[in-house]
């Protein structure tokens, strides 16, 4: 069974407190073929350092990693740039303070395959909301 490349695009800005959990939720995906694209949007905390250290520890998990830092351009411009750098057949845009369930990408890819709709362009899922204290 062929698993198409799925890109996870993360625009990050001043989320040093959350970024490692966010990235760990991508590492923990049961889906095997993932590209990770992260743009640090001029964070003034140590978000970029945490991303670099995390990627060094987990670089073998991903089919491809793109990590760039830039001067602050805002979430929309940074999201668009991250998406433009993606090579995957599908792109998941993930906030740098968000988490995804371990089977999220696998379940969505199964649904896409089952639907077999050549016009399908967007898939979304429900969300659980947690606060800054993980509640």
UniProtKB/TrEMBL annotation:
Superkingdom, taxonomy of origin: Bacteria
Glycosyltransferase 2-like domain residues: 7-117
Molecular function terms, GO-annotated: hexosyltransferase activity
Sections of the chain in a coiled coil: none
Pfam families listed in its UniProt record: Glycos_transf_2 (PF00535)
Annotated protein name in UniProt: Glycosyltransferase 2-like domain-containing protein
